[in-house]
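Project standup — Tuesday

K.O.: blocked on the structure for the chain from last sprint. Re-posting the sequence here as requested.
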Amino acid sequence: MRVRSPRQRHISRIAVAILFTLFSWTALETLHIKRSLSLPPSSPPAELGGERVFISAIHWNSEAILRSNWSSAVVELARELGKDNVFVSIYESGSWDDTKGALRLLNAQLGESGVRTRIVLDATTHKEEVEKTPAEGEDGWIWTPTGKMELRRIRYLARQRNRALEPLWEMTDEKFDKILFVNDVVFTSDDVRQLLATREGDYAAACSLDFATPPEFYDTFALRDSEGSEPLMRTWPIFRSTASRRALQANDPVPMQSCWNGMVAMEASPFYQEQLSFRGISDSLAKHHLEGSECCLIHADNAISETKGVWLNPRVRVGYDDVAYRAVNQVPWPSSSQIVRGIWTNRLLRWLSTAYFRERKMADRVAEWQQGSNEEEVGAMCLVDEMQVLMPNGWAHV
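H.V.: unblocked you, prediction finished:
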């Protein structure tokens, strides 16, 4: 039998002590987080109906979710808000399934409840959009590495979102308190009630978390933490920023610079006072192989984002189908094993990686653009190293 030397025994004792410390640290941290996640909000959300809400959505090939969940959820939400406190505005374009039929049915159901709506069903297809010849100097078209003049996806989406907002600006005799933007997700009236009540209603914007394939969250394009960084990881606890990560772990409203995540409530006043609207970055900047989500740029442009803040409410979790929604709304969420994996994966990624080089690359391209254009982009945090164009069957990177 081999006898270990005093040095080996000393190293073994150190290793055991380290493992015991790590295990105890992880166990205590996990228990603390689980307790925080189990606590109810400090003040329960008020019942719906105390605010006037403008509901805005764009749809494309959404028939399945409309018929299974979305339409019935909107009808129930409008009922709880009260017909005099809600307006539903939807813009649809070029779907090749029966999205138009599903929206006609929704319009009829809302009409029966006396809810005011504007649902635009546009027959123009993506194919028709991308095959048209742009006018000289028309915004939104760009020469791509394929050698073709192509239509930028974000400029196209921004125009659609603004079309859905048109009734807000046209109704000059009345004002809404909040605008609720809803993607093609599974949600309930209770989700909306909790979202609107984020920080007792004191926010420039409040977002949900969205999931397509749990435990991974979905929307990385528009999500920027309190320091303006992209998500560190696609599972809980997501963020590199200390402030954002700690708030998520405590189940508190998470400070952000930008978020969207399937459903977002925004204070309506900037859309009236500043004519806040959706946009894409300039075509001249996009030529530097850069793009930014219109759902991120809206926060950069919002005059009250800095004073009232953009917040993510981790208690509100939506899904892109029933399976995803149920998976992230069961108790407990996240599970103990997901917490342990999450805190250590996040910790190691923060220790072993940096966002400096990605952010430096974006900054250098913006600086090069500024020298040649004398323009400025206030939404630099939104930029990614991508070029996105519309295609007849969707969109593509080029």
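K.O.: great, moving the ticket to review. The CA atoms of residues 133 and 149 lie 9 Å apart. The chain has one domain: 53-373.
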